[in-house]
């Protein structure tokens, strides 16, 4: 049975564009692959504690946490990392919904990725090479070539570098821009463009997920 791992990172439930795009992708995936299983990890509601990664790295090099350090318990940190990594490796496809916060990825996403990067097989690019990963991204402003903020999106290149180049996965992206236009003074003239961008992103997310589901189904047949 095929497994889709869905990871949400938005701090919001209501009104989250990245979650809504992931909903479209998940619905399309289920439509094509109704017998598949969806495993969920919500980093927005249940983030990885900040002290986990320092505890893992300190223990890895045989050192003890410095006096007064707010590190996690090493055994608990290792158990959590083991679960996170095993879950990721077991998935046939991964769907990651990420909002652009402060021009990059938020701490909850970085903490998750840092745990994955403690695994040698993932670092070597052998554990999940060739597997599909779909990013549903929400950007409050505009970052396309020629815009004033071109190059300010530091999240997408990082995600592509880690999941595409380090892990060797097959990356697909559906991104909505100008998502803050409807609620931000001074962006009123961009509201129509934001609606078009969001609708296009929903369409793209569904197309990516359908393609992934069909590919997995044909491979399993």
TrEMBL record:
Task: Outline the extent of the Flavodoxin-like fold domain.
Answer: 3-171
- Report the Pfam families cross-referenced here: Flavodoxin_2 (PF02525)
According to the record, cofactor stoichiometry and binding are noted as: Binds 1 FMN per subunit.
Q: Please list the reactions this protein catalyses.
A: N,N-dimethyl-1,4-phenylenediamine + anthranilate + 2 NAD(+) = 2-(4-dimethylaminophenyl)diazenylbenzoate + 2 NADH + 2 H(+); 2 a quinone + NADH + H(+) = 2 a 1,4-benzosemiquinone + NAD(+)
Keyword field: Flavoprotein, FMN, NAD, Oxidoreductase
List the molecular function annotations (GO) for this entry. Answer: electron transfer activity; FMN binding; oxidoreductase activity, acting on NAD(P)H as acceptor; oxidoreductase activity, acting on NAD(P)H, quinone or similar compound as acceptor
Co-factor(s): FMN
List ligand-binding residues for FMN. 10, 16-18
Q: Does the keyword Flavoprotein apply?
A: yes
Q: Kindly report, in one word, the top-level EC class recorded for this enzyme.
A: oxidoreductase
Region (Disordered): which ranges?
197-221
List, alphabetically, the InterPro entries matched. Answer: Flavodoxin_fold (IPR003680), Flavoprotein-like_sf (IPR029039), FMN-dep_NADH:Q_OxRdtase_AzoR1 (IPR050104), NADH:quinone_OxRdtase_FMN_depd (IPR023048)
UniProt keyword annotation of Lyase present: no
**EC number of the protein:** 1.6.5.-, 1.7.1.17
SUPFAM superfamilies, per database record: Flavoproteins
Q: What does this protein do?
A: Also exhibits azoreductase activity. Catalyzes the reductive cleavage of the azo bond in aromatic azo compounds to the corresponding amines.
Tell me the protein family, please. Answer: Belongs to the azoreductase type 1 family.
Quaternary arrangement and interactors, per the entry?
Homodimer.
Q: What is this protein called?
A: FMN dependent NADH:quinone oxidoreductase
Organism the protein comes from: Kribbella italica
| Lineage, top ranks | Bacteria, Bacillati, Actinomycetota, Actinomycetes, Propionibacteriales
- Name of encoding gene: azoR
């Amino acid at each position: 049975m095929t497994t889709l791992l869905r990871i949400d990172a938005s701090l919001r439930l209501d009104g989250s564009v990245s979650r809504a795009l992931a909903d479209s992708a998940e619905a399309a995936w289920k439509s094509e692959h109704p017998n598949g299983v969806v495993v969920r990890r919500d980093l927005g509601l249940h983030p990885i504690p900040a002290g986990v990664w320092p505890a893992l790295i300190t223990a890895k090099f045989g050192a003890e946490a410095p006096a007064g350090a707010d590190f996690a318990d090493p055994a608990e940190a290792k158990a959590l990392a083991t679960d996170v990594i095993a879950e990721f490796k077991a998935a046939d496809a991964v769907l990651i919904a990420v909002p652009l916060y402060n021009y990059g990825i938020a701490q909850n996403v970085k903490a998750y990725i840092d745990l994955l990067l403690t695994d040698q097989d993932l670092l070597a690019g052998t554990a999940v090479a060739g597997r599909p990963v779909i990013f549903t991204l929400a950007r409050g402003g505009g970052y396309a070539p020629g815009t004033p903020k071109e190059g300010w999106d530091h999240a997408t290149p990082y995600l592509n570098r880690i999941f595409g180049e380090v892990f060797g996965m097959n990356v697909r992206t559906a991104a909505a821009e100008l998502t803050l236009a409807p609620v931000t003074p001074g962006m009123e003239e961009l509201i129509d463009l934001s609606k078009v961008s969001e609708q296009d992103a929903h369409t793209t997310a569904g197309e990516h997920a359908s393609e992934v589901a069909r590919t997995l189904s044909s491979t399993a047949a």
